[in-house]
């Protein structure tokens, strides 16, 4: 540390403003520059002590959440964040049946109407194309709480914030993103975009016929990201690759029960199974504690649940860091004076 001309006390509004998010929609993690992401993390650190109590900086502001797909974490965490900031929440967890969408109202009109009530909207939707077409109708900022198979940026942010708090850096980290189906890994895509922005290395492992979509790889290439793709590894090869990494991220399966894509995921899950022995062996060999991250919900057959009670577990810790970062996001997008 050295004294500089800019030396001054921390100010939340400076960090929020420096994200550049005020009044904008949040669609992809790479909507934020490296500096913007760091400012958001700094804001979240200031807000973190209040994740279980309350501030009063969003008094009189309203968040509307509309989730056209099921959710536990994203909806509750986003709503909790607004409540902890002192704002209010209006919510519809099943708009296809309980809102006027059931009377065939378009998403365009829905966003325009809801904008008259709320100061910010949190939207989850299965069809990203439909959302992008309707987005210009919104008159207040809209947060992607998961759109299609492609983007889930608040999950990406909470994953990034967990890494920031655990390691205090991104450069020099090697992070595996592995799944039996990388085409539908929207949380994995979001995390990868953030990792690329901050200079970490990404190590993909998955089946060749279900690899990371071109849209995401195009974005990674545009950022000059350091990434590798490994296909159809056997269990031994996957174990060896894991040993070269600092973190392993499992994006899980966001496909609801009863759909074919979910069966494909489950059938191939065994090839990507992570057992505790692999992590213990890696620690013995390299001295490194490999962190296991998962966007949850998880399923038996994806990884060894004995990891829950070890130093490798990060997936429940991710949840506890999710409120502070969403508080920072909401306050950045609405803005405080
Ligand atoms: N991680 C995640 O998106 O979980 P939910 O589907 O429960 O929101």
Structure described in brief:
The protein has helices spanning 12-18, 34-47, 73-84, 95-98, 107-114, 128-134, 153-167, 186-198, 214-222, 235-243, 260-268, 276-286, 315-334, and strands at residues 62-67, 88-92, 120-125, 142-147, 174-178, 201-206, 226-231, 247-250, 291-294. By secondary structure, it is α/β, with parallel strands linked by helices.
How are the SSEs ordered, and which strands pair?
Blueprint: H1 12-18, H2 34-47, E1 62-67, H3 73-84, E2 88-92, H4 95-98, H5 107-114, E3 120-125, H6 128-134, E4 142-147, H7 153-167, E5 174-178, H8 186-198, E6 201-206, H9 214-222, E7 226-231, H10 235-243, E8 247-250, H11 260-268, H12 276-286, E9 291-294, H13 315-334
Parallel strand pairs: 1-2, 1-3, 3-4, 5-6, 5-8, 6-7, 8-9
Helix pairs in contact: 1-2, 1-13, 2-13, 3-13, 5-6, 7-8, 7-13
Enzyme class: transferase
Protein name: Aspartate carbamoyltransferase catalytic chain
Keywords: Transferase
CATH superfamily descriptor of the largest domain: Aspartate/ornithine carbamoyltransferase
Q: What are the distinct ligands in this entry?
A: phosphoric acid mono(formamide)ester
Strand content: 5-15%
What is the name of the CATH topology of the largest domain? Rossmann fold
- The strand line-up of the biggest sheet is 7-6-5-8-9
The average pLDDT value, as a whole number, equals 97
Give the total of beta strands.
Answer: 9
Number of helices: 13
